[in-house]
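Hi there, hope your week has been kind to you so far. Please have a think about how the structure follows from the sequence. I've dropped the whole record in just underneath, so have a look:

_____
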Amino acid sequence: MALTLSFPHTIGAFLPPLPLDSLLSTQGIMVMLLAAYAVAMWMFLTSAPKVYTVMVSDLEIAKQFYEGMLELPAAEVPLHYYYNYEQTLGATAIDPLYMSSVGTAPVSTGLNGTDGLWYQLQKNTQLHIISGASLGNKNRQRHVGFDRECMDKLLQRVQVVGVKYKIRREKPLNFLVKDFEGRVIEMAELSN
């Protein structure tokens, strides 16, 4: 005598009654495990924060700027960065002008996804600050963003906090701000 498993009428409208012994077979258990894994991965990936990366010429100056002037709260490193998640910057798409030629290691060598500074930009959006950008003209600190949306959000934050700024170019976005020490920081969107 085979036992039959029936689902509530809302699910039962889509699924026919299944014999219990087929669900408890090796094949049935594997299908249930795969389905549970798929649901868990979907929940994990949809709850992960969006992460923007900004490459800076000096991490200590960047820390003073983002924490002091922009008043961004520190954030925990997202869980998916702990599991060998390689954040690809598209090494072939990075303009050599933005790469530092003095004193820092190349970006592709030894960059651990958890290194750098982490800030909460919005509720489910984080900012990851890494070193590696070169100094700009007149030894300006340079902060290079790889995403227009990221640079727009940073400009909005500058405007909300009331930091003086000057937009130099709209496309790709490039603007200047001054920090508390009077240093000029160039915020530049990297264009492909």
Remarks:
- The beta strands are 4-5, 18-19, 50-56, 117-122, 125-131, 141-145, 165-169, 174-178, 184-189.
- Helices lie at 9-12, 20-23, 26-47, 59-69, 148-161.
